[in-house]
Write a structure and sequence with these properties.
The protein has 206 residues and is an alpha+beta fold. It has two domains: 9-136, Ribosomal Protein S5, domain 2, CATH 3.30.230; 140-203, Ribosomal protein S6/Translation elongation factor EF1B (Alpha-Beta Plaits). It is built from five helices and eleven strands. The protein has helices spanning 38-51, 84-93, 113-130, 152-161, 186-195; strands spanning 9-13, 17-23, 26-34, 57-63, 71-74, 99-106, 134-138, 140-148, 165-170, 174-182, 200-203. Strand 2 and strand 3 form a beta hairpin. Helix 2 packs parallel to helix 3. The longest helix is centred in the middle third of the chain and has 18 residues, at 113-130. It is elongated, with a radius of gyration of 21 Å.
Length: 206
């Protein structure tokens, strides 16, 4: 996967997609999702298990961030290496990140063997990633920003100016915002917030 820590942009998918592949009676339904955190993955996996309670397997792979080490794969009971790795291989061959693919399998009564399984999971994933548009996004660093309500306009002006993503906000007399700050504008944003006095910034733990 061609990513490094110096990267300021990354490629991901624009929206969820789904595709289906059949082989000798078995049905493989691949669901691809753009995700930001491992918590997103857990939620989506639970959701699909509820939607497909009778499926034989719910295999998956996801990759997060640009440091190459944040990924997870699962064969969910299929022979080792026949599902999760082929799914991740398709995500990586397109140099994507912040992507989750879950492939739901309904067993059709005929064993496909190791090569057959690898091909099925790889093909279903490839199909799901082919039918969705890819987008380039800024690599962001998450920060918590605490400030007095009277400083709201100035804080928001800086976040808007540098195209920061506001993930959550608590607005009371004392306010707290969690924002994703584009990595290549981080110093400017932190400097601007520091200039406002009594604005506290802290990098969020991953």
């Amino acid at each position: 996967m061609a990513t490094t820590n110096d990267q300021t942009t990354y490629s991901t998918i624009s929206q969820p997609s789904v595709a289906e592949f059949k082989d000798r009676g078995s049905k493989f339904i691949a669901y691809a999702y753009p995700i930001e955190t491992a918590a997103d993955f857990k939620k989506l996996l639970q959701q699909l298990k509820k939607e497909h309670p009778r499926a034989a397997h719910h295999c998956f792979a996801y990759r997060l961030g640009t440091d190459e080490n944040n990924f997870r794969v699962s064969d969910d009971g299929e022979p080792s290496g026949t599902a999760g790795r082929p799914i991740l291989g398709q995500i990586d061959s397109r140099e994507l990140t912040n992507v989750l693919v879950i492939v739901v399998r309904y067993f059709g009564g005929t064993l496909l063997g190791v090569p057959g399984l690898i091909n099925a999971y790889k093909t279903a994933t490839s199909m799901a990633l082919q039918v969705v548009a890819l987008v380039k996004k800024q690599v962001e660093v998450r920060y918590s920003i605490a400030f007095d309500y009277t400083q709201m306009n100035e804080v928001m002006r800086i976040l808007k100016l540098y195209h920061c993503t506001i993930e959550s906000q608590e607005m009371q007399l004392f306010c707290n915002i969690t924002a994703g700050i584009p990595k290549n504008r981080l110093q400017e944003v932190l400097y601007g917030l520091k200039e406002l006095q009594q604005v506290e910034t802290e990098k969020c733990k991953e």
